[in-house]
Design a protein that fits this description.
With about 325 residues, the protein is of the alpha/beta class. The protein folds into two domains: about 1-190, HUPs (Rossmann fold); about 210-305, GMP Synthetase, Chain A, domain 3 (2-Layer Sandwich), CATH 3.30.300. The chain is built from eleven helices and nine strands. The strands form two sheets. It has a five-stranded parallel β-sheet, with helices on both faces. α1 (about 1-20) crosses α2, α4 packs antiparallel against α5 and α10 (about 210-230) packs antiparallel against α11. The radius of gyration is 20 Å and the shape is globular. The structure holds xanthosine-5'-monophosphate. The site of xanthosine-5'-monophosphate has 16 residues, from loops.
């Protein structure tokens, strides 16, 4: 893409001019935005950049490994992988209120990130994958508290507290342009085309209390669902698709025994920007086949339902 090629050069010059010989930290989330920002900044200033990946234990199947492998092995970007799952799951234990769960995750994220930043001797700059719509959004909310959809990804409050300046090379771009820039930088298509994933991760797809066991069950169901979606060639038609593990057990039969296990809800929506969404119209055979696979392969789930709520009145996530 010719325009993106030019943008890449301009962005690199700008980053070099801003940062000079300074050090930059980037909180990598595994999402497209922070990844594209990190690769671009690395191209501009090399090892003056260190990425910190705070693994909260709320990622999907194999996700953390994939991110670490891609950045370390493929791009040679210095990356600190912090496994903080014990800390996050510990503090989330017994918490059932959606807002409380989000706040705990946001607070811990900042704490862990700050600790790691200190360990590596600090930095003058903090890189963020802020996009143009994020900028607009926080402006339109001005006057009230700064509520952004990406409350977790924006390590809000940190820059001031740690006396850091922001480096935001994607600030002028829309999502599709970030994807084009990612392709221009050589990120794999499969990675660039990934559905958005919320900062609080599986915590908001496990309504009510979270346990390691529930997360494990949810991960397996979600992986099967996404596998079926990819195999049927529908992945790119869908904005977001994921499984939700409900805090409800129902009775079922398996062989000649009675089961009493959790209900799994499947969600898939089409959308342009995530602000409104329609539920995705799967073929019933697809849903039946996927439900059968989930129930047969995942211990702990004996019933699957499909969410046919659009946004509004529903939200895309369940919490
Ligand atoms: P809702 O559920 O509000 O979600 O319809 C709209 C879009 O935002 C994502 N989402 C989040 N992303 N941190 C994020 O980075 C969050 O706390 C968060 N909550 C929702 C959601 O996945 C969807 O794409």
């Amino acid at each position: 893409d010719w325009t993106m090629h030019a943008y890449r050069q301009r962005a690199i010059d700008k980053i070099r001019a801003q940062v000079g010989k300074g050090r930059v930290l980037c909180a990598l989330s595994g999402g497209v935005d922070s990844s594209v920002a990190a690769v671009l900044i690395h191209e501009a200033i090399g090892d003056q950049l260190t990425c910190v990946f705070v693994d909260h234990g709320l990622m999907r199947m194999n996700e953390a490994d994939e991110v670490v492998t891609m950045f370390r092995d493929q791009y040679n970007i210095p990356l600190v992988h912090v496994d903080a799952s014990g800390k996050f799951l510990g503090e989330l234990e017994g918490q059932t209120d959606p807002e409380t769960k989000r706040k705990i995750i946001g607070k811990l994220f900042i704490e862990v990130f700050e600790e790691e930043a200190k360990k590596i001797g600090g930095a003058e700059f903090l890189a963020q994958g802020t996009l143009y719509p994020d900028v607009i959004e926080s402006v339109s909310f001005s006057g009230g508290p700064s509520v952004t959809i990406k409350s977790h990804h924006n390590v809000g409050g940190l820059p001031e507290r740690m006396n850091m300046q922001l480096v935001e090379p994607l600030r002028e771009l829309f999502k599709d342009e970030v994807r084009a820039l990612g392709r221009e930088l050589g990120l794999p298509d499969r990675f660039i085309g990934r559905h958005p994933f919320p900062g609080p991760g599986l915590a908001i797809r496990c309504p009510g209390g979270i346990t390691a066991e529930k997360l494990d069950i949810l991960r397996k169901a979600d992986a099967i669902y996404l596998d079926e979606i990819r195999k049927s060639g529908q992945y790119d038609k869908i904005w977001q698709a994921f499984a939700v593990l409900l805090p409800v057990q129902t009775v079922g039969v398996m062989g000649d025994g009675r089961t009493y296990e959790f209900v799994c809800a499947l969600r898939a929506v089409t959308s342009v920007d995530g602000m409104t969404a329609d539920f995705y119209q799967f073929d019933m055979n697809f849903l039946g086949k996927t439900a059968t696979r989930i129930i047969n392969e995942v211990r702990g789930i004996n019933r699957v339902v499909y969410d046919v709520t659009s946004k509004p009145p529903g939200t895309i996530e369940w919490e």
